[in-house]
Amino acid sequence: MNPSCTAIQERMVAGESLGEADQAHVLACAGCSRLAADCLALDAIVADELDGTVTVPDGFADHVMRRLEAGSGRVGGWDDLLTRRWVQVVLANVGIAFAIVNLLRFVFSTLIPAASLGGVP
Ligand SMILES: [Zn+2]
Hints:
Elements: H1 3-14, H2 20-28, H3 30-50, H4 60-75, H5 77-82, H6 85-109, H7 112-116
This protein binds zinc ion.
């Protein structure tokens, strides 16, 4: 493989067009002609794949949606309930309410017994 082979093969892979001298070299050189054939075969494979050899079976979307609904119905229970956003917000607010009540009880626990005994005017 001489240096011009490398340059020509790089241009073929990059998809650039070849001059007449380069085309003559590709026809004469075994390595370059093999690479050209490989490039053509690869292009043909890609074109075939893009033409839509992949077919979606009938009712595929309905089948997927049925599976998803069956899967979501199976979770249920406490795990499902505790991961819901509104349940978390409600539980957090209940915790905050208990904390505030405890704080107020602590603050007023020093005042209320003293007031009931008439110690604080
Ligand atoms: Zn060559």
